[in-house]
Amino acid sequence: MKAVILAAGKGTRMRELTNECPKPMLRVQGKPILEHILQGLISAGIREIFMVTGFKAEVIEAYFGDGSRWGVRIVYGLQVVQDGTGKAPEVARSFVGNDPFLLTYGDILVKPETYAQMVRRFTEQDFGGVITVTRGEDVTKGGLLFFDDAFCLSHLVEKPGPPQLEQLRQDGWLRPGSPVWYNAGVYLFQADIYEHTARLQKSPRGEYELTDAIATFIHAGRRLAGLEIQGRWVDVRDPEVLAKLEQES
Predict the structure, then answer these.
(1) pLDDT of 18-69, one tens digit each?
(2) What is the DSSP string of 38-102?
(3) Is residue 221 predicted with pLDDT exceeding 90?
(4) Which regions of the chain does DSSP assign to beta strands (E)?
(5) pTM, full prediction
(6) Domains along the chain?
């Protein structure tokens, strides 16, 4: 099992905090966000890690080096054109090879045991991967996911607006009392997901969307197992979230 961390963005919502420091290197309780993620991956037994970098890539590489300080191997690749989440993982294509890999954004914090839970879920059956979800988030800012009775992904809608949400209610996808699942941004994939990222077209937003590749992946018959994240899940999106994390004991 390998891991790919998407850490190319500047994080403009962090304002002046990311003028000289890439967002994934902002510190939470004394350590960069990326280091928290790295330690969680290590606790799941993952030792081969690729970091997709972009803005201020040298800051990340200077801190983590080759990974030997943590007993792992870290490889880097630059996303020269930041044109969406769908193309960012392709920077790591040769690194991944034919191996399954855990994919996470570099600004999502979860409990370390979440990664091990994903690996266990992945090995339960012949899955094409695992997609994590959480509840209680504003789905208009992310992905809305629907699952079958075996809790495998059956349908997803990226950042649905009010008209889409109303249509989903009318079509029976959204039902009163049923959970509303939000895409938590941490995945595990078999390597053939790359067949789908390679064929992506830009979305109406002008970007390549990872969720579009996931949609064609499941339409091709690959089963993506769902996993609800237990405990902490934080999208470190802005200074207010960062400040709240610092106050945690």
Answers:
(1) 777 888 998 888 899 999 999 999 999 999 999 999 989 999 999 999 999 9
(2) HHHHHHTT--EEEEEE-TTHHHHHHHHTTSGGGTSEEEEEE-SS---TTTGGGGGHHHHTTS-EE
(3) yes
(4) 2-7, 27-28, 31-32, 48-53, 73-78, 101-105, 108-110, 129-134, 143-147, 153-158, 181-189, 224-228, 233-235
(5) 0.93
(6) 2-247 (3.90.550.10)
